[in-house]
Amino acid sequence: MAIASKKTIIVDDSFTSRLLSQEFSIYYQASRALSFDEFKKSRHLLPYRSFNTPNYGFVQKGAWLYAKIENRSDISRWMLEIRFSQMQHAQVFITSQGTLIQYLNDGIQNKTSPYPLPSFELDLPSNTPLEMYIYIKSSSMVLVAPIYLHTDKAQRTQSMLDFSIWGVFYGVLLVLFVYAITFFAYKNRLIGAVYIVHLFIMLLFQLLWSGHTALLFDWINTLFLYVRAESMVIAMCISATLLNLLLVPSNMHRPKIRIMLRYLLYVNLLFFCAFLVPGFLPQIKLGITYALCFATLSINCAICINAFINDYFPARALLIGWASSIIGSSLSILFIFGILPNNPFHQHIFHFTLLVQTGIFLLAMVLRNQYNLELEVKEAESDALSNFDVIEEQNVRLDLARKEAIKASEIKSQFLANMSHEIRTPLNAIMGFSKELENNQNMLEREEHVRIINSAATDLLTVVNDILDLSKMEAGKLTLNTRPFSPRNLLEDVAALMSKTAHLKQLEFIFEIHELPHSLLGDAFKIKQLLINLLSNALKFTNYGYIKLSARVREQTQSHATLEFEIKDSGIGINQSDISKIFTAFQQLDDDLNRSFQGTGLGLVICKELVNFMGGKITVLSEPAQGSTFTASIGFGIDFSTKRLNKTRRFEDKTAYIIDDWNESSRASKLQLAALGFLTVTLKEVSQLKNYAIGNAYVFIFLPFRNLQNRNHVNKQRNEMRIVNTVFVYSGPEPNQLELDATLAPPKFIRMPLTSRKLKDLDTAAHKPNEGASHEHVKKLPAIRMLAVDDMALNLRLLQTWLKASPVILDVAYDGESAIERCTNTDYDLILMDIQMPDMDGLKTTRFIRKTELNIGTPIVAVTAHAMETEQQHFLDSGMDDFLSKPISINNVVALINTWCEQVPDSKQNAVINSAVTNSIDWETALKLCYHNHDSAIEFLDAFTHRLTTHAAQIESGLKQQRNDLVLASIHKLHGACCYTGVPRLQDFCQQAQNILKTHQDEILPETITFLLLEIDNIIEIWPKLRKSLLTSPH
């Protein structure tokens, strides 16, 4: 918690949905809750607090929240939502210039909105400063108020999502209820009845906590006002304990624990009744509730542990359920007391674990019946042994039935495990690459990520459809979906997916594809699953080195082709004695080296089953500490229905030089380039290109992760040799820090491995620089030397991209120390300084640069995200000359350079002065700046001319003291005032004087200051006469 200066909440066109809680000042109500008028009058006298998380603790009298807001968008209708359902009172007041323009009310005690959570439809007029007051109160619960502002569309989307999630939740409860009715009717009436009561109590709790009671009939909602969520938690503890007692046989209980649980039930029942009567403080009520809850969870866990030790296998499921409830309750407590941040996960984890436990109760009921059935079978076997001659045939039948049941259970378990693996594989790709899309600005890679996500989503949909096919699931069989597919496209999809994972582990990924048929007939989805599983296994057991995916045609006839897929790694390898175990379901290798890598043991089993299912063969060669090679040979039909396109002639007879010192990688790249028609030459180093006439040939320079330290050296060689068509093929971090030669065509960057998709746009016009209007201005920039300082390499890379076609020489530094070192040795015309940097920030760096001999007077511009006027003034007072607000644009950078680095020659100075506005006071401009308010314009000019004498005195005082810094500060303030009063000539003189002072053109400064002071005298003399005529003329 920290006191923070509050900014105005700006709502613009890019604004769709945003958390506003951190923007509000919080005023606790101590002795009594102030009314709106009382709070509005005394707000400036009251202490306020700010919170990083919207959790304000126990506040009996409620709290006021205050913030300023301005709507700069074209949308006037907004939805304000407080995402906490236990809010008894929530009131919103919006004022404009002290006048109340909107009042809204919602909450448990006075529900007015159609949403379960407190929601308010705001009407925010555009471009009007507003003040928002929110009063919130939750007397029976910790005050949690995450406040969101949505557009109408975003609100509908959020509501639809919320209702969908809760719909699934209540749907699951309904399914469990149907199962419980069945169980009650045919199995155990007592357990079924208690389970139904538990479901009903849980439903009541969810309706109370989620706020969905407000969506029911009014009379039902009124009844719920007298029942609180704490009472329902205790009721759930009682019903869950009764279920546990019924599900765990009494002979599995320790006597002392059973007695403790019995007394705890009485205590729970006592407090359940007590909480129905008002009077308890919320702190005490919550404390008692959670104490009873954890005591109940702990004792029930102890009972299940004791039963599990005694080989009562249904206790295993019960133990998982109680453990999940303990975890959910712990996280819920930490969330309610503000230790964990407010987010949907922490808000709903308790409800999710309750649902999990409720489902596990039903599973335990089924397992209990199975346990009892097995006991009966054992008793029957015992009876059969004692009466063998009588019931021998019956024993044989029972034994066969038991074996068939066990076998069916094993088949089902294995099938579900396989399906789980197939689901997680594409889901991992979707989640991973969607996260990459948030941060990656490279359009080629973003397009590739989208293709991968679409492909993985299609695979996931196929798996889900298979799961829903009950006939297939019951039979434990899969079917081949034979369709035409492109083997090269399939392999490139797999390479794009898995190479990213390999690079994250700092592994090289080699993609070696020989000539393949254009189109084959087969199940592309299962082929992809096979390759992904094999590659995932290789990645799992490889910590350094490389992963290789290769494919070639082993045999081919006119209508059939056998493809051989090879996955090779440099991992830990496998002992010969263990190779036979890796394809056996649920087998784990025993040696110590492999144990730390073990998972479910199903990945390679699935691979073998898929290969066998498709009529293929899979083999493995491996040596410990040398790596493994898995080879899968599968036959396919050749597709003649898809017309084969002619091989592209775009790169036919063009030469490609491959600079790669690793034979494995260069051989794979050579195959890829040859498939596109390139004539390839493979070299080890860039320096070897001196022996060749390169011309316009493409030069592919490989920058692998293992040679990260040599990147700058290789780039320097490229610059020295003037290589035109350069393609940097890299792995690991992006080579953003390379110092590119602006006189050469910009190189293309491709992430390894090379694929035909990545190379298809190699020579298209889309990769040429855009010659738009902004770039024309860039070319006309003055020839200066500029330094940019930023700890974010991406920002510096962006500047280099913008200015590469300009005469500007751009040096970059990634921290304050590097910037000081450069400024000590180099004279710069302009310095861009990032403020927020680790170790040494921009202000401290600026102070050191001001002490260097070469750059003591160089203009330094602060690049900052702080848009507040006080912050900007702080930067100017700290020695900086100007500021540039983030996010920056190319137009802002061009304007900044022209402002600070454009020289004003002596011969042009008088011409500029003489070309100024003829009239000293432009009344039309002054009127326009005041929105055509005649009286306001006169008032502004009155105040302005009144201060002119002071401004002139400050300027003359600075000149006498020979303090150009004081002169600049005075003129800077005067220039700001000129911008709002309609004095164009004086405004021009101020701008010219600032430019001269900032660029140290001292020889023409006196003349400009003289004109400026004369213009001040002229305005002081003219204004009274003009004012008189304006007052007497009609308007």
Automatic annotation (TrEMBL):
Q: Which residues form the HPt domain?
A: 933-1026
Q: Which residues carry this modification: 4-aspartylphosphate?
A: 834
Protein's recorded name: histidine kinase
The record, for PROSITE patterns, names:
HIS_KIN, HPT, RESPONSE_REGULATORY
Q: Which residues carry this modification: Phosphohistidine?
A: 972
* Taxonomic lineage from the root: Bacteria, Pseudomonadati, Pseudomonadota, Gammaproteobacteria, Alteromonadales
- Signal peptide range in chain numbering: none
> Which Gene3D superfamilies does this entry report, sorted A to Z?
1.10.287.130, 2.60.40.2380, 3.40.50.2300, Histidine kinase-like ATPase, C-terminal domain, HPT domain
Gene designation: barA
- What's the catalysed reaction? ATP + protein L-histidine = ADP + protein N-phospho-L-histidine
EC number(s) per UniProt?
Answer: 2.7.13.3
Q: Which residues cross the membrane?
A: 163-186, 193-211, 223-248, 260-281, 287-309, 316-337
Which UniProt keywords are present, listed alphabetically?
ATP-binding, Cell membrane, Kinase, Membrane, Nucleotide-binding, Phosphoprotein, Transferase, Transmembrane, Transmembrane helix, Two-component regulatory system
Please give, as recorded in its UniProt entry, the membrane topology of this protein. Multi-pass membrane protein
Molecular function as annotated in GO: ATP binding; phosphorelay sensor kinase activity
- In its UniProt entry, the species of origin is given as Glaciecola punicea ACAM 611
Histidine kinase domain sequence ranges: 418-638
Record-annotated Response regulatory domain positions: 785-901
| GO CC, alphabetical | plasma membrane
Its annotated compartments are:
Cell membrane
| InterPro entries hit by this protein | 7TMR_DISM_rcpt_extracell_dom1, 7TMR_DISM_rcpt_extracell_dom2, CheY-like_superfamily, HATPase_C_sf, HATPase_dom, His_kinase_dom, HisK_dim/P_dom, HisK_dim/P_sf
UniProt-listed CDD domains? HATPase_EvgS-ArcB-TorS-like (cd16922), HisKA (cd00082), REC_hyHK_CKI1_RcsC-like (cd17546)
